[in-house]
Design a protein that fits this description.
Layout: H1 9-20, H2 28-38, H3 46-72, E1 87-93, H4 103-122, E2 127-131, E3 151-158, H5 162-170, H6 173-176, E4 180-186
Antiparallel strand pairs: 1-3, 1-4, 2-3
């Protein structure tokens, strides 16, 4: 389709005649612009510059307002809850060799976990997680260790039921590297 199918034959003939006809006389454009300006239909000079500056200021104000509204409506950190689906936390306890990994080896391992989570996300899961610092903050008497293995990271995700959550947990690369994991349902509060 040429995009001109909605023209009548008369419109097509007239347009072709315009393109084939003589050039407009010199000064015609200036005369039309002067008449439009005199009638208040076309702004000229300083007034045009003021209108452009006002339009630019209005555009910037709307842009800033959009950013402010977007910041106020930013979602809470962590994965969004999928309606009707329970949420779970998968706690990852360090593998015995975890402390012996070099920085490049650790980067490869973290990338493996990230790729695993991205694969789950692409399959429709809402999953997020973090690697934790090796040492917890000292809270004095309230700082009770979780067990003999340090907690190294976690993932939070939704699953349709405990069996589906266990399947996600078993697929985590952490278990292939000798790490231990605990799966806990998150109670609604």
């Amino acid at each position: 389709m040429s995009g001109h199918d909605d023209r009548t034959p008369e419109e097509t003939r007239m347009l072709n005649a315009l393109t084939a006809g003589p050039e407009p006389p010199p000064g015609l454009e200036d005369a039309v612009v002067a008449r439009l300006a005199a009638g208040g239909l076309l702004a000229r000079g300083q007034r045009t510059a003021r209108l452009r500056a006002l339009a630019a200021a209005a555009g910037l104000a709307l842009f800033a307002l959009g950013i402010a509204v977007g910041a106020r409506r930013a979602p809470a950190p962590g994965p969004p809850a999928v309606a009707g689906m329970p949420r779970y936390v998968l706690l990852l306890y360090d593998a015995p060799d975890e402390r012996e990994l070099t920085a490049p080896e650790m980067a490869v391992r973290v990338a493996e976990y990230r790729d695993w989570a991205i694969g789950l996300r692409r399959a429709g899961s809402d999953i997020s997680g973090e690697k934790l610092a090796p040492q917890p903050l000292d809270l004095g008497a309230a700082n009770a260790p979780a067990g003999p293995l340090p907690l190294g990271g976690y993932f939070v995700f939704s699953a349709k039921d405990p069996a589906a959550a266990a399947e996600v947990a078993r697929s985590c690369p952490h278990l292939r590297h000798g790490g231990r994991a605990a799966l806990r349902p998150i109670e609604e509060t």
